[in-house]
Amino acid sequence: MRLDESVTEPISIDIWSDIACPWCYIGKRNLEKGLDAVAADEDAPQVNITFHSFELSPDTPVDFHGDEVDFLAGHKGMPRAQVEQMLSHVTGVAAEAGLAYRFDLLQHTNTVKAHELLHFAKAQGLQHEMEERLMSAYFTEGRHVGRIDDLVDLAIEVGLDADETREALESAAHLPAVRQDQAQAQAYGIQGVPFFVIDGQYGISGAQPPAAFENVLRDLWSKRGDSVEA
């Protein structure tokens, strides 16, 4: 009997996120911890992960004059004391995920070029490395991730060619791919990130704990095994 080849395909995990979204970096870490946990299983689930573009604040200027408290207080109309309390809470949650957020250093910026860079990196097989580098640079190092020169420097660090990266960003060659991701998010009804679409049928919203990902992955992989036996 010939088995359906689809049952052996990896589980797809499509992640809509913004590199300037603090919960997206936390959610990424929690997913990675969940994946590490299931990797120890006797029949470990196989996965393919793809990041997709989502802009939380597309109207943000490339060079915002002010700190993160200034931005959120103005953008959301929240009192500064409330913003500071919120950022303190997020910093604590990030620390539990192993991330050292530095909102005092953070340089708020428009992220569309960073998303273009992620699509360029994806074409070179380095999307995951670029995603990690951008988020780390933004949240823990106070690096600027909105200007082409700064993005080229970060791209070089993960092994991308400087000239090719600059050409891709200056020509906006990957902007259509960014817009396509955003259109797909709208079609799915995604209004906030991070948002994880697993196997094109299960949606997980927010920075869920590692166990949430473990449970879904083990359940899906088990069902595939049952299909093989059937």
Description:
There is one protein chain. Helices cover 53% and strands 10% of the residues. Helix 6 packs antiparallel against helix 7. It has 230 residues and is of the alpha+beta class. Strand 1 (11-17), helix 1 and strand 2 form a beta-alpha-beta unit. Residues 1-6 have low confidence and may be disordered. Strands 2-1-3-4 form a four-stranded mixed β-sheet.
Write the layout of secondary structure elements.
Layout: E1 11-17, H1 22-39, E2 47-53, H2 68-76, H3 80-96, H4 112-123, H5 127-140, H6 148-157, H7 162-170, H8 175-188, E3 195-198, E4 202-205, H9 210-229
Parallel strand pairs: 1-2
Antiparallel strand pairs: 1-3, 3-4
